[in-house]
């Protein structure tokens, strides 16, 4: 374990021997600060660096725990890569951090896992934040693929994109080529980007920190997990105050997907970012921070008092 100012970098071993790379921002020895755990998206591609960039601003008031999920980043690439196993890993990290209850944030694929966690362990949550989600894993990937193939923003290898979204990638190189040709699809239109200053519109953090591609993780997530993922009829059981965030120009998880989730949650607030694509934290960072801070102050922090 190594400390970097108020940031603690650790390797946490799970019950089945897998090592997870973990960072806690705003760490305090007394563990009096409330805990927020943030899940990255894109299995086998994204890392802790995306949620770190998105939620570091909260480290004065929260312990912000971010990590590379098993099968991603520099955590061990040892399965299973099921939602149940990833949920068990969250529980291990919650206990390791010494928190009975916490705020859970999930971005993109991490939002799917966060939804499943909230259904299974809702009593552990006093807040849930979802960014770029859908509730139906059968339709979601197919709609995303359809939007890609009809988009004027990208020219892609059709067969390769089919392999990405069906979880049938040939190898890690196939995964890398698929993502690199797809990057412009995740951003807002050029006219929206042009209205933001350099300070307001930094480089997208969606795949920040990616140095390796792990197609086995992606393949399992989209060939096994997603066809089984459908929480539409269970959303009403999630009682935690929830913030649902989506970009107006998000063609991966479009606004209607977030609206469906928010409409079925008992205590949800839907926030649409008009100048964002799939990543409001980097497309509109100042607004994102303000919206999250306001939601925490109004809906979450009062629960702790």
TrEMBL record:
Which parts of the chain span the membrane according to its record? none
Sorted alphabetically, the keyword list is: Hydrolase
What are the record's GO terms for cellular component?
A: membrane
According to the UniProt entry, its GO molecular function terms are: peptidase activity
List each copy of the AB hydrolase-1 domain by range.
Answer: 34-284
Any single biological process term in GO: proteolysis
Q: Name the domain of life this protein comes from.
A: Eukaryota
InterPro entries assigned to the protein according to its UniProt record, in alphabetical order: AB_hydrolase_1 (IPR000073), AB_hydrolase_fold (IPR029058), AB_hydrolase_sf (IPR050266), Peptidase_S33 (IPR002410)
- Hydrolase as a keyword of this entry, yes or no, is yes
> Does the record's keyword annotation contain Hydrolase?
yes
Q: What Gene3D superfamilies does the annotation carry?
A: alpha/beta hydrolase
Q: Which Pfam families match?
A: Abhydrolase_1
Q: Which PANTHER family match?
A: HYDROLASE, PUTATIVE (AFU_ORTHOLOGUE AFUA_2G14860)-RELATED, MONOACYLGLYCEROL LIPASE
Which family, according to the similarity comment? Belongs to the peptidase S33 family.
* Protein's name according to its UniProt entry: Proline iminopeptidase
Organism (species): Exophiala viscosa
């Amino acid at each position: 374990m190594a400390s970097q100012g108020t940031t603690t970098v650790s390797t946490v071993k799970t019950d089945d021997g897998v090592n997870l790379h973990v960072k806690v921002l705003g760490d305090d020895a007394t563990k009096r600060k409330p805990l927020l755990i943030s899940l990255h998206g894109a299995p086998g591609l994204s890392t802790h660096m995306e949620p770190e960039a998105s939620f570091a601003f909260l480290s004065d008031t929260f312990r912000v725990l971010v990590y590379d999920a098993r099968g991603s980043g520099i955590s061990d690439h040892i399965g299973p890569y099921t939602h149940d196993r990833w949920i068990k890993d969250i529980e291990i990290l919650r206990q390791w951090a010494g928190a009975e209850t916490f705020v859970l944030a999930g971005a993109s694929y991490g939002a799917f896992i966060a939804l499943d966690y909230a259904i299974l362990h809702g009593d552990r949550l006093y807040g849930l934040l979802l960014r770029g989600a859908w509730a139906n894993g059968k339709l979601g990937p197919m709609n995303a693929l359809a939007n890609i193939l009809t988009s004027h923003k990208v020219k892609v290898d059709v067969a390769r994109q089919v392999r990405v979204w069906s979880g049938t990638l040939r190898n890690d190189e196939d995964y890398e080529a698929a993502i690199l040709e797809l990057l412009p699809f995740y951003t807002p239109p050029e006219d929206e980007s042009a209205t933001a200053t350099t300070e307001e519109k930094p480089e997208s953090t969606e795949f920040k920190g990616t140095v390796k591609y792990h197609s086995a993780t992606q393949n399992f997530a989209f060939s096994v997990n997603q066809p089984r993922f459908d929480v539409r009829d269970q959303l009403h059981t999630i009682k935690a105050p929830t913030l649902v965030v989506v970009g107006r120009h998000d063609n991966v998880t479009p606004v209607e997907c977030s609206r469906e989730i928010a409409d079925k949650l008992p205590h949800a607030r839907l926030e649409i970012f008009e100048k964002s694509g799939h990543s409001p934290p980097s497309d509109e960072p100042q607004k994102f921070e303000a919206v999250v801070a306001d939601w925490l102050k109004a809906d979450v922090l009062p629960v702790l008092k």
